[in-house]
Design brief:
Number of strands: 0
Distance between the termini: 45 Å
Order of helices and strands: HHHHH
Shape: globular
Number of helices: 5
Strand content: under 5%
Helix content: over 70%
Largest sheet: none
Length: about 80
């Protein structure tokens, strides 16, 4: 099913995956799914236990790796925009 992905360079593969992540995240269903995943990864609450901290770190990795480093700044800007 994903044979074409294996044929890409690592840079092109990451670019294709990032585009797909953004496309999915922009759909209503994707927003629900990503919110559920991030909730399960302790992204929206304080991670107290070592297991929760590991999950929280993985959530941050996913966001940075698949949405790009600038994603955390867009989240921050969105938060600031909601306060207005």
């Amino acid at each position: 099913m994903l044979e074409w992905l294996a044929e890409l360079s690592e840079e092109d593969k990451l670019s294709a995956i990032r585009r797909a992540f953004v496309e999915v995240a922009q759909s209503e269903s994707g927003k629900i799914v990503f919110a559920a995943i991030l909730n399960d990864l302790c992204f929206f609450r304080q991670a107290e236990e070592p297991e929760e901290q590991a999950l929280n770190n993985y959530a941050k990795f996913l966001i940075n790796h698949y949405f790009g480093e600038e994603a955390k700044y867009r989240v921050f800007e969105a938060l600031l925009g909601r306060g207005q």
